[in-house]
Amino acid sequence: MRVSVAYRYWNNLWSHSRNAEMYGRFASESGLGGNLGVDITGEGDLLPLQQKAKALLDHRCLFTDVPDFVYRPSTLEAMTVFIFDRLSEDGEGLKSVMLTENGQWRCRKVRGDDQLELSLSYRNLELTVRGPLDPESALVARREDLISAVDGVFSRQPIMRENEITWARELFSELKKRIEILHYLMIDLGRHKIRVDEYEASFG
Question: In sequence order, what are the beta bridge partners of 110?
Fold first, then answer.
């Protein structure tokens, strides 16, 4: 399901320079408009939950129409938590909510987990970090930090080794040094994918 929504990476209590530092290229006092993907998992008939999520987001300007976001940032992470909390009011059937922004960023909230998963698709990698929602910035991680970490690793021109699993583990280790909350890494090699975390690496 897709929704068209206006949202904002901006904290009205901060200066312009602090907003720019925190949100980077996404910082905008006047807000952003775009189409978000919404994926809902759960038990039973999910149509009512999908309809409710659409009514909450579709063709809405969150920072003027929705009281939750008038005075706080409506980031991807904050929107994910907002939708999850509202859908949870309808019972225990909801398992997870995932929002996708620009095909590059995804945020997932799972029932029973107080942390969020934020994923970035960049180059031929998909990085997933896990962490709590920061109440001031409404972020799990600064976007620029994740992007620059990948650029920093690739600037060293990592050489594909004959043993792909060993190479993938080394790549994960290098990224983990720069991104402490890195949870797992998916590497698209064209022929197949490799998923690697702190404990194991496997072909996808």
Answer: 96
